């Protein structure tokens, strides 16, 4: 995007030092693991955040690990984590409708994604730093005050149809 262009460095300004990887040599580097306590912030009403500054791009990335992996789905309710993931992407909050949330994200240039796999459910938002506070407020609302009722039945039905069609063959 244009607002990133001035800060983006060009890695290909000079030719590669060698055409063969065997000819490349690098100085040894040591890695010192950072102390998590240096980045830990306790939020109210209780979640823990780890805040790390990276000045390369003027964006804020919020990643939230939700304790709802698909491996924890109860027997007979397989797909519950995937349903939760879809609901978080479509739900209202007690203060905002989904249309208001999407309009705010559009105005801020923010993106929301929620993905679930066997070991985790991850909610991620990327937004320009100018909209960080408003974005964080919406994320907080989605996690602490979601309204799933307006979209629950439609989403459950869509996932049931998708599961029923999973065995269909194009042949």
Overall description:
The protein is of the alpha+beta class. The chain has helices at 2-5, 80-90, 98-108, 132-144, 149-165, and strands spanning 40-42, 48-50, 59-66, 92-93, 111-116, 121-128, 146-147. A hairpin with a 5-residue loop joins strand 1 and strand 2. Helix 2 (80-90) packs across helix 5. 11% of the residues are buried. The mean pLDDT is 84.
Which properties best describe this structure?
single chain, 171 residues, alpha+beta, 3-stranded antiparallel beta sheet, two-stranded antiparallel sheet, 7 strands, 33% helix, extended
Task: Give a short synopsis of this structure.
The mean pLDDT is 84. The protein has a three-stranded antiparallel sheet.
Task: Map the helices and strands.
Elements: H1 2-5, E1 40-42, E2 48-50, E3 59-66, H2 80-90, E4 92-93, H3 98-108, E5 111-116, E6 121-128, H4 132-144, E7 146-147, H5 149-165
Antiparallel strand pairs: 1-2, 3-6, 4-7, 5-6
Helix pairs in contact: 2-5
What structural class do helix, strand and pairing data support? Answer: alpha+beta
Q: Give Rg in angstroms.
A: 21 Å
Shape estimate = extended
**Average of per-residue pLDDT values:** 84
Number of strand elements: 7
Order of strands in the sheet with most strands: 3-6-5
Please state roughly what percent of the residues sit in beta strands, choosing from under 5%, 5-15%, 15-25%, 25-35%, 35-45% or over 45%: 15-25%
Low-confidence segments? none
> What's the story with the biggest beta sheet?
3 strands, antiparallel
Order of helices and strands: HEEEHEHEEHEH
Distance between the termini: 43 Å
Q: Total helix count?
A: 5
Task: Give the % helix.
Answer: 25-40%
